[in-house]
Design brief:
The protein is an alpha/beta fold. It has two domains: 164 residues, Ribosomal protein L4/L1 (Ribosomal Protein L4, Chain: A), CATH 3.40.1370.10; 46 residues, no CATH class. The protein is 34% helix and 15% strand. It has eight helices and six strands. It has a six-stranded mixed sheet, with helices on both faces.
C-alpha cells in the first residue's frame, strides 16, 4: 500500500490516505507514458496548413520553348516552382493520420502517471477546501503552504466554479476535474494536489474516474 499525506488548507498535516498500487496499474510503464504524452500533443495540432503544388495551380503543362537553340536557360511549364505564380516545391498538405491511442491505454497511462507522482512523493491531498466567494490570493496562499507554488495540478472531484475562478489566473497552476485528467496533464506540472473527495473517487473506481478522460482526448 502507498500512503499519501493529507493536509489542511494551511499546510498542517492531518493524516494520510492509503491506496493499493494495483488500482493504478501496479507499476509505472515509462514507454506507455511517453506514448500518451506524444499522442496528446499530436492531437492538439490544428493540421490546417495547406499549399498548392505545381499540379494544383492553374496553367498549361506545355513547355514554354524548345530545349536548345534559343540562348535562354532551359524551362518547363509556367507552373514550375521557380516562376512567379507557380506551385510550391514542397507543398504542405492537409490533415495527416493522427496517432492512435485506445481508451484502455489512455486510462492506464493516466493512472500510471498518478502512480508515478505518488511514488516520487509529489502527490498530496488537501481537505477543507472552500472558497466562497472566489479568492485568488487565498488560493495562492494555500498552494504555497502545500508546496505547489512552483507549478501544480489541482484536481477536484467535480466542477467547482469558485475553486476554478480562484485558481485560473495563477501562473503554472491548473485546476481540473479528476475525471477529465489525461496522463499529459498529470505529468506536466511538478506537483499534484487532490481534494479529499477526488482522491476517494480514484480509490473507489479509477476506471469510472477516468471515463471522461477518453472522451475529452477523442
Amino acid at each position: 500500500m502507498l500512503a499519501v499525506p493529507v493536509f489542511d488548507v494551511t499546510g498542517k498535516r492531518t493524516g494520510e490516505m492509503e491506496i493499493d498500487p494495483a488500482v493504478l496499474g501496479g507499476h509505472v510503464r515509462a514507454k506507455l507514458l511517453k506514448q500518451a504524452v506524444v499522442a496528446f500533443q499530436d492531437h492538439q495540432r490544428q493540421r490546417s496548413a495547406r499549399n498548392k503544388s505545381r499540379s494544383d495551380v492553374e496553367g498549361s503543362t506545355r513547355k514554354l520553348y524548345r530545349q536548345k537553340g534559343t540562348g535562354n536557360a532551359r524551362a518547363g511549364s509556367v507552373r514550375t516552382p521557380i516562376r512567379r505564380g507557380g506551385g510550391r516545391a514542397f507543398a504542405k498538405r492537409g490533415p495527416t493520420a493522427v496517432k492512435e491511442f485506445s481508451k484502455k491505454m489512455r486510462r492506464l497511462a493516466r493512472n500510471n502517471a498518478i502512480l508515478a507522482k505518488i511514488q516520487s512523493q509529489e502527490a498530496v491531498i488537501v481537505e477543507g477546501v472552500l472558497f466562497d466567494p472566489p479568492k485568488t490570493k487565498a488560493f495562492a496562499t494555500m498552494l504555497a503552504a502545500l508546496g505547489g507554488d512552483r507549478g501544480c495540478l489541482f484536481a477536484t472531484h467535480e466542477l467547482d466554479r469558485n475553486v476554478y475562478l480562484s485558481g485560473r489566473n495563477i501562473p503554472y497552476a491548473d485546476v481540473r476535474v479528476v475525471g477529465e485528467l489525461s496522463a499529459y496533464e498529470v505529468l506536466r506540472r511538478p506537483r499534484v494536489i487532490f481534494t479529499k473527495s477526488a482522491f476517494e473517487g480514484i480509490q473507489g473506481d479509477p476506471k469510472r474516474s477516468a471515463a471522461s478522460s477518453s472522451e475529452a482526448q477523442g
